[in-house]
Amino acid sequence: MIDIGIVLEGIWSPIVFILVIILASIVAYWLYRMGNSQYEKTEHSGDPFISGNRPPGDIRKIHVGGDNLFWGLTKALKDYFDPLIEGHTGKLNDYMYWVVVTLAVVLVYIYLVV
Amino acid sequence: MNFDIFVHSPAFILGIPLLFAFLTPLVNRLSEQLRNVVFGIGLVLTAFFVGLMSYQVLTEGSWLYVFGANQPEPQNLLSYFYFRITFVADSFAVLATITISITAVAAGIYSYGFMKDETGLNKFYTLFLLTLAGVNGMVLTGDLFNLFVWFEVTSVASCALVAFRNYRGRSVEAALKYMVLSTVGGLLVLFSIGLMYGQYGVLNYALLTQSISGTFIDKLALGLLVVIFAMKASSAPMHMWAPDAYSEAPGSVTPFIAITSLGSLFVLFRLLFGVIGVNVDPSVSGTLLIILGVLSMIVGVTMALVQTDLKRLIAYLSVSQVGYMMMAVGVGLATLNSADYQNFGTLAMKGGLFHMINDGVYKALLFLSAVAVVHVTDIRSLNKLGGLAHDMPYTTVFFLIGALSIAGIPPLSGFSSKLLIYQSVYLYSPVLAIVALVVSIITLAVVGKAFFNAFLGPDQGLAEKKVPSSMLFGMGLLTVVVIIFTLFPNLIVSEIVSPAVKALVGVMP
Fold first, then answer.
1. Cα–Cα distance measured from residue B214 to residue B218, given in angstroms and rounded to the nearest whole number
2. CA-to-CA distance for B133 and B135, rounded, in angstroms?
3. Is the pLDDT of residue A7 over 60?
4. Cβ within 8 Å, pair A110-B299
């Protein structure tokens, strides 16, 4: 334990938080209305783009799938994710293996420490 | 002798679902409509008696309910302890049974619409009520042998629920894995009970608490009980059965199966604080809980990040949330015999137990809204889902509320309990608080991915049918509870959670 000299105090009120969110939303909407009144819609307004390029196919049906999100993160942490995913084999033998291993480690810990 | 229904309520909490479990198939021979009504009455009556017990405990204090005694609260308790079945009606049991009841009622109502095209529903409702009786028995019982009995009832009934759609091979496979692990777990629990009984000749929690002296055999029993109940609570690295069972069970009972895991966690905490853990060395048990908790948080959330199956994604998040509870209560247990318990240990306990009731509700909401998506589209892959907010506006809102709550985004209820956990575990070890915060951020990324993939984007016309009104009602009920927990966290902590912490830590009545 580290004595950091912090005393637990403060306030958390969800109702006040919600009131602040409502107030902020009203202000945001007011700003949006101010900007929106001067907006001029052109032929390609609102169209999606990827890195400045118009994506192929019907742009109205473009939707990023589950595999595409966070692919960069999982690729960067490949050394962590690969063994983790491979460890989840779906085999009952492996499930039992982990129960036995955990039991052994816990018992060794208890007998060594207590 | 006056019959005090409040004092007898623990017996009804067990007796009502058992009675209605066997009444349901009989009534089914008369009418399927009547069967549904009887099932609903069984659920609501059980919840009603949970309410009565809660009122009595919170206003008059806790009591030991002794079955077969000449009065429900006998004066000479010791003469009954050796032979009688006892239930502990205290604030901790109140917290547990309220969590179970809310989920059971919501899942039961949801089942009406979800299961209406299935056959063999008389058996389904029987198994549902047997599971409810089993998990209530587990958290209420005051002796080890009955703990084993209710553990087995819960395991058998919930395994049968997982395998209910036996025309799907994957359901049967998931149930087989769950059954084997539960059976091995049950045998080891029975073995540890035998070790206790062989030494002390008693099985009652209160007598064992006085008797256990931390012998070589006590340590073996402690290790067995910690590991098996942690496994049943889906703690890493023994969590692998949970995504299989949760994702292959009929969707309407998925949160209910998850609640049986939470029931095991309630039992684990009861045993560690009230029976064996404090007598062996609380700091050892506390450290074990912290280690298992941190492991569950990290493994659960990172496995969720790479899932593309919506139900498995939420199942892994469930593993991660169990980690928060184990870590927080572990900090409370580790500091129990030191001054730090008063400084921050008790706050960690409050955070952990508040997170249990929170998690039980918002996780159920998240599961049920995901199941509604699968029910309507017959698609589970996040690579194929999209744009459902156009066709399923209510389900979208329900999912969003559950998702933000599980990610601990203010002002939702998950934030309130996580804030207590962050604050308290920081004072024990800043590393734990950092891990908890990082896991929360990844959880937000995971639920953000699920919400984005399933609900946002252009309408793809995937919704083949409407969500039945009973399913919407079940999700709506849970949403109302989440909103109540969101708006009044102080009330929940002061009236339900704090007494539960005192009951868990204090001497048995």
1. 5
2. 6
3. no
4. no
